Amino acid sequence: MFGLFSRKKNVVDEEQAGWIVEQSAWLDKHIGFPNNPVPLITPTEHFFSLPPATGHERALHIFNEVKQLMGLQAWPCDLEAQDEDIDPRVNDMMIVQNAPQAPLGTFGVGAPEQQRIIITYSPNSLENPHSLIATFAHELSHYLLACCDQPRLYDEDQEEPLTDLLAIKCGFGLFLANSSFTFSQYSDGIAQGWRTSAQGYLTEREILFALMLFMRQNGHELDAAKPFLKAHLYGVLKKAWGSG
């Protein structure tokens, strides 16, 4: 979010760290959290039950569990699937450049007479429940911020990073960290290769610095994150922990 990391002794520079600390304090003051301390949400049966295998019912099941974990189960909200993305690969020899891709999720308000809050998701995310959980935590954090009328400390273009930060403070930092960047192999019987994807607005290191602050604030031990983070991410979190 704020460019290159200039300090070797921390995983983020002074400007990044200062922004995260300041905004975290603002969220503590103005956003209510359902639990104190806030749990570190993990991809385990302690927090999530087995969802349906496919379709919108799978998304709705996960969405309702994320809502409950955020203390928003009584907040009215409709979940809708977006249209399917255009497949940029025409065949094994041709790929459409710059094919439009839908966002992983959106938050919006319906027509005034309807008074509906609408969150959407990409059907492509159904195959990756970790990514879907991160998306829902982010969009529901938009809902929390939309209901907060306190003056913001930031410019409008920092709304999305603040929303990521709120999702981390609601306990979903492991999901945001693991979903922030992926590099994976694919094969569909016609073509194979490598693909990358990015998710979220805070950088990987900003997420992990914010996760460190959240875990310290809520009494979670560093080792609690190790089984659930990619190895290189845990290394960054451990470094942040030692310099925080």
Characterise the protein shown here:
The chain is an alpha+beta fold and 244 residues long. The chain contains 6 helices and 7 strands; from the N terminus they run ααβββββααββαα. It has helices at 14-30, 55-69, 129-146, 159-179, 204-217, 231-243, and strands at 78-81, 89-91, 94-95, 105-109, 117-121, 181-187, 192-198. The strands form 3 sheets. A 3-stranded mixed β-sheet has the order 1-5-4, with helices on one face. Strands 2-3 form a two-stranded antiparallel ribbon. A two-stranded antiparallel ribbon has the order 6-7. Helix 1 packs across helix 4 (159-179), helix 3 (129-146) packs antiparallel against helix 4 and helix 4 (159-179) crosses helix 5. The longest helix is centred in the last third of the chain and has 21 residues, at 159-179. The protein is globular.
Overview in brief:
40% of the residues lie in helices and 14% in strands.
Blueprint of the fold:
Layout: H1 14-30, H2 55-69, E1 78-81, E2 89-91, E3 94-95, E4 105-109, E5 117-121, H3 129-146, H4 159-179, E6 181-187, E7 192-198, H5 204-217, H6 231-243
Helix pairs in contact: 1-4, 1-5, 2-3, 3-4, 4-5, 5-6
Count every helix, treating DSSP H or I runs of 4 or more residues as helices.
6
| Spatial order of the strands forming the largest sheet | 1-5-4
Largest sheet features: 3 strands, mixed
| Low-confidence blocks of residues | 2-7, 86-100, 182-198
- Cα-atom Rg, whole angstroms? 18 Å
- Proportion of β residues? 5-15%
The counted number of beta strands is 7
